[in-house]
Amino acid sequence: MFKKILIANRGEIALRIIQACRELGVETVAVHSTADRDSLHVTYAHEDVCIGPPPSSSSYLNIGSVIAAAEITGAEAVHPGYGFLAENAHFAEVLADCKIAWIGPKPETIRAMGDKANARRVAMDAGVPVLPGSRQPIGDAAEAAALADEVGYPVILKAAAGGGGRGMRIVRDPAEIAGQFATASEEAAKAFGDGSMYLEKYLAEPRHVEFQIFGDRHGTIVHLGERDCSIQRRHQKLVEESPSTALDAELRQRMGAAAVRLAEAVSYENAGTIEFLLDRDGSFYFMEMNTRIQVEHPVTEMVMGVDLVKEQIRVAAGEPLSFGGGMAPRGHAIECRINAEDPERFMPSPGRLTTLHLPGGPGIRVDTHTYQEYVIPPYYDSMVAKLIAHGRDRGEAIARLRRALDFFIVEGVKTTIPLYKQILVDPAFCRGEVSTRFMEEFRARQAGEEDAGE
Ligand code: MV4
What we know:
- It contains 15 helices and 22 strands.
- The chain is α+β, with helices and mostly antiparallel strands.
- Residues 131, 156, 164-165, 200-203, 206, 208, 232, 235, 275, 277, 287-288, 436 line the site of ligand MV4.
């Protein structure tokens, strides 16, 4: 096992990784920008190194500074968390050159899956279902038009270098395909330095169902069930749960087998996520693969009874997986991402947490780097905490989450807590009827209720 690990991240995930290291008896190095001196990840690490000024481009994304911090402290491995450098294949390669271990998949896997058009082709070749569409990046507008005619409208244009909803265009009218292709490709070239686009048939009201997969260095690859992340707004996930109310054991087995097949096709190592779109009729289609630990990993941990971050470290140190595949979920878990935001406008609301009381009790987990009097800086994402409830069934998980939201007191900044209290009593949510359109439909129901009340 490693003696010392550097955590190349901040916020709640940095603290989560430090917790895992402690349990494994591994020493920790925190890196931080000048804006994060007072964060708990700095407090709890054995050592800390300031790596630059607040903008992440000058600190958490500065490969030279992070590697210098690892060299100075003698860290043997780096855990990247999520975001920042987590899916940067070049960073993983530079670490290897410096003889520092990378807690994540092989750089070539990160690169292969980071190109979303290539990932789609890998899935097709592995016999994993994909929506009708491109086999390779689209050459020009005429090719986009021909392909769209072939698969039928509506279609969606996606940037190969995008992902997570960035660089997407839905096209419903054949008259618009050429123009949309040109502008989308130009935008992608500007935003990602790569204008490659691919095309898929557009599904109107799918669910976002993703599978947690895990591979070790001895060739074992398993899945740990799914997370339903259909409730999103502007491609930001709001609520994540496991198991999905749309899956039975048979569909879970088939989707899980497809996820494992794809992971096997790239000899996947460490933790990863395979995203699917699930249609109403039970058809499922590969969308993207994420080659990192995800924000919503705790819902899987709670229903599967595993510690995914400890497992990442063990596997990176060469140990075999400590669990097998094919486990059935135990009970139900739901996570809310609590942000310092004005939920009406979805605008960040940074500042001092003048009061903070965190809920606890049976079945409740709170992952946070904050404390009373902590100041949320304006430079990074505005997450205050992840609140996760586990219950014997979905009803108990919802009741516990509602109770915990009622007992979660934050003063000094606006938060998304009131929004979650509304979602958790929404009739469609309570029936488990969610799709990627959920938030629009929910807003409409809320507006209708207000009208009726006046
Ligand atoms: C789609 C889709 C429907 N059809 N692709 C969004 C994030 C990125 N991972 C891909 N996404 C989608 N891709 C096809 N062929 C629906 C989504 C999607 C979505 C789209 C618009 C608004 C919200 C969304 C939430 C989740 C998924």
